[in-house]
């Protein structure tokens, strides 16, 4: 599981999240201001297709 950080929309503190959890509708909380970060249904499919493209790039790279 890949863990990344995203800047909190409220205070810009990096918030750790994992892409798989985010795609499953999991919410991640900012440790500084407790703002919740989650994907809406529409952005979830956008992120999902972006990840698919990344996976394809990774596969192409291995050849
Ligand atoms: Zn915050």
The coarse overall form would be elongated
Provide the list of bound ligands, each named once: zinc ion
Rg computed from alpha carbons, rounded to a whole number of angstroms:
13 Å
Order of helices and strands: EEHEEH
- What's the domain count? 1
Query: Class by helix and strand content?
Result: alpha+beta
Average per-residue pLDDT, rounded, comes to 85
Total DSSP E strands: 4
Q: Identify the strand order in the major beta sheet.
A: 1-2
Main beta-sheet strand count, sense and barrel state: 2 strands, antiparallel
Helical fraction: 40-55%
Give the helix tally.
2
Binned strand content? 15-25%
CA distance, first residue to last residue: 23 Å
Query: What are the segments in which pLDDT stays under 50 over at least 5 consecutive residues?
Result: none
Question: Mind explaining what this structure looks like?
Answer:
The chain contains two helices and four strands. The chain has 63 residues and is of the alpha+beta class. It has one domain (3-58). The strands form two sheets. The protein has a two-stranded antiparallel sheet with strand order 1-2. Strands 3-4 form a two-stranded antiparallel ribbon. Residues 8, 10-11, 13, 30, 32-33, 35 line the site of zinc ion (ZN). The site of zinc ion (ZN) has 8 residues, from loops.
């Amino acid at each position: 599981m890949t863990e990344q950080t995203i800047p909190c929309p409220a205070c810009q503190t990096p918030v750790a999240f994992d892409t798989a959890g985010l795609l499953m509708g999991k919410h991640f909380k900012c440790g500084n201001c407790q703002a919740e970060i989650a994907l809406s249904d529409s952005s979830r499919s956008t992120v999902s297709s972006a990840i698919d493209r990344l996976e394809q790039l990774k596969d192409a790279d291995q050849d």
